[in-house]
Specification:
Blueprint: H1 4-14, H2 19-26, H3 30-39, H4 45-55, H5 59-62, H6 66-83, H7 87-101
């Protein structure tokens, strides 16, 4: 079973974020976040959703097994990068992918 607080802390450290940065990105108070860790209390679903949003992952990805976790994060990063492209660049990428898998 996943330790929610441990997972939040791991994701925060991977991004080299301070507790303050995570609180700011998630739109929650620093005291709320600090209290969760000092009192070892589980975040509410709403708070966890906000934290996941800050990490740019879904709740499902948060609770994914470790092997799936890396793949999910890579896919999200790829999709986020793709979404930043112009329509023309997306067409080029799509054509390139089609050629690669033929």
């Amino acid at each position: 079973m996943i330790d929610v607080l441990e997972k939040i802390d791991k994701l925060r450290k991977e991004r080299k974020w301070s507790v303050y940065k995570l609180a700011d990105e998630a739109g929650i108070t620093q005291s709320t976040l600090a209290n969760m860790f000092t009192r070892k209390t589980q975040p509410s679903i709403k708070t966890l959703e906000q934290i996941c949003y800050a990490f740019k992952i879904s709740l499902a990805e948060f609770f994914a097994e470790k092997e799936d976790e890396k793949n999910s994060i890579e896919k999200i990063n790829l999709i986020n990068s793709y979404n930043k492209l112009s329509d023309r660049d997306k067409e080029i990428i799509n054509m390139l992918i089609k050629k690669m898998i033929e």
